[in-house]
Amino acid sequence: MLGVTCSHIGYISSESPPWLVLEHECRLLKLSNKLKYRLLVKMLLINAVIVLLMFLLSRWSIGSGFLDYVNKSEQQRMTTLVDNLSDYYQQHGSFSALAEDGAWPRYVHRPRFIELEPPTPVIASKREPTHHRRERGAKYHLLDRDKRQIAGPSYKNIKSLLLIPIEVDEQTVGYLAFKQHKQIASRLDRLFIERQTANLVLIGGFLLLSAALLALLIAAQLVRPLKRMAVATQAMAAGDYQVRIAADSSEEIAALAMDINNLATSLEQNREARQHWIADIAHELRTPLAVVTGEIEAMIDGVRPSSRQGLESLKQEVWQLTRLVNDLRELANSDRGALEYHKLPMTVAEVVQQVCDSARGELEERAINLRLELSSSQQIWADEARMRQLFSNLMQNTLRYTDAPGKLWIKLYQQDDRLVIEWQDSSPGVSDEELPRLTERLYRVEQSRSRVEGGSGLGLSIVANICAAHEGRLSVQHSPLGGIAWRFSFKLIDEQ
User: Fold this and answer.
1) Hey, which end of the chain has fewer CB within 10 Å, N or C?
2) Cα–Cα distance for residue pair 452/456, rounded to 1 Å
3) Are 100 and 197 within one domain?
4) Which of 84-88, 223-227, 311-315, 489-493 has the lowest mean pLDDT?
């Protein structure tokens, strides 16, 4: 069974009015019963079709099998009658006496066909009328060697008869003919078939009733965990991401329950991350706003003169606010794919070279030694402006956090059908726990860095988004130089 472990059922909180809780419970019960009865009806329909097919096939099998049995019994009776007719012909030399009125039925239906003397004509009595004796032999036809009828009922087409030759001294002296049954004619035989059909109806009804009971149990068993899953998903829709489903049912339903639990975990983590992110944004905005407010109030109160130095400080804080807002806007746009990408064939080596040339003065000022190995001039499909932003953000990260004297090693090469860019800098490095979090928004390894020294904490998140938008692969590792090693790979343009 599946159990929902949560403080309340569905999306009705414990503070909801009783009538709302009751309405919610009734709606869940109605949904559960509706699903259960749908499953029950479908199962019953399937079982009814199966039982009906079994009934029809069984009835056809009994009817055809019994008819075949009747025909084979008649053939066995004819074989015995043929042997007796062969002996009769040996003794009398012909079958002419059997053509007399009533002789053929009496001969056919005598006990075990042991009466070998030619029958003598008799006068019909009240006890057994002549037409009754004719009916008793109406099934068989006696034909001569030329297949002309000697005795028996008339027929329209000899091809409809089953002929068995009557042989004497290996010569055919006549034929015993019989018209095989195409349907049950005997009243007793029909009664037997009717009784078997009635038994089949009773058996089918019993099977259908049993199937209905089993279907009801199975439907209830299937609906019970699904109902709990519906309760859990409604709770998640209401924002209760702590709901969990105990998975101890069948394998498939347990897998579905685990997927719902994983979804709840992911939603809970996303909500916590969103809350932390909003709190971090508020903190990041509050710091420069507090500085600006304090500076302005100090100038108004006359505590601090309205000098150029004070205005430069305000300008620096306003610039910091503007940069943070712009970074947030770009990150939000890249998250929802709103950044415009105009992808054209682009030589990555040229863009990397231009970014390095622009930052050469800052690199020399911070005593960071640059080593470039741009061994491939292959092109990729990319937006040059966005790729320039990617490498510029990496360069700013290196300039902010690499200790002087430091090293920056940029290597570009081709590997199979992909272009690889490795970006490595020297110490300080980061711990193993911090390494996968570098592209998280507003995350800084050293929270004590000042706003002037550090960035907004969004640059590396934008780097990851731009890489993903170009269908690139990104990995972050420890650098042999002591800092961080960034590795990007992009698919090359197929020159064919």
Assistant:
1) C
2) 10
3) yes
4) 223-227
Tell whether 258 is covered by a domain.
no
User: Has this prediction a pTM greater than 0.85?
Assistant: no
Q: Which of 285, 314, 331 is the last residue of a domain?
A: 331
Tokens representing 433 are: 């726990």
- DSSP-derived secondary structure letter, 159: G
Cα–Cα distance for residue pair 294/297, rounded to 1 Å:
5
Q: Is pLDDT at 82 greater than 70 in this prediction?
A: yes
Is 228 in a helix, a strand, or coil? helix
446-450's contacts with Cβ under 8 Å and 24+ in sequence apart are: 446/401
Is the dihedral angle over the CA atoms 350, 352, 357, 358 positive or is it negative?
positive
Give the largest Cα separation in the chain, rounded: 157
Q: What is the pLDDT of residue 12?
A: 40
Answer for the pair 50, 204: CB distance below 8 angstroms, yes or no. no
Render pLDDT for 356-373 as a digit per residue (tens, 0 to 9).
Answer: 988 888 888 899 999 998
Alpha-helix runs per DSSP H in 93-125: 103-108
Structural domain count, the chain: 3
Task: Quick: pLDDT tens for 419-431.
Answer: 999 999 998 888 8
Residues listed for the chain? 496
| Cα dihedral 68→71→75→80 (10° resolution) | 110
From the centroid of its chain, how far is CA 136?
69
Q: How open is the CA angle 415-420-425, to the nearest 5 degrees? A: 135
Tell whether 28 and 137 lie within a shared domain. yes
235 and 282 both lie in a single domain? no
- 459 vs 367 pLDDT, higher one: 367
- Structural domain including 4 reads 1-249
Contact 210, 11 (CB under 8 A): no
Please indicate, yes or no, whether residues 327 and 345 belong to a single structural domain of this protein.
no
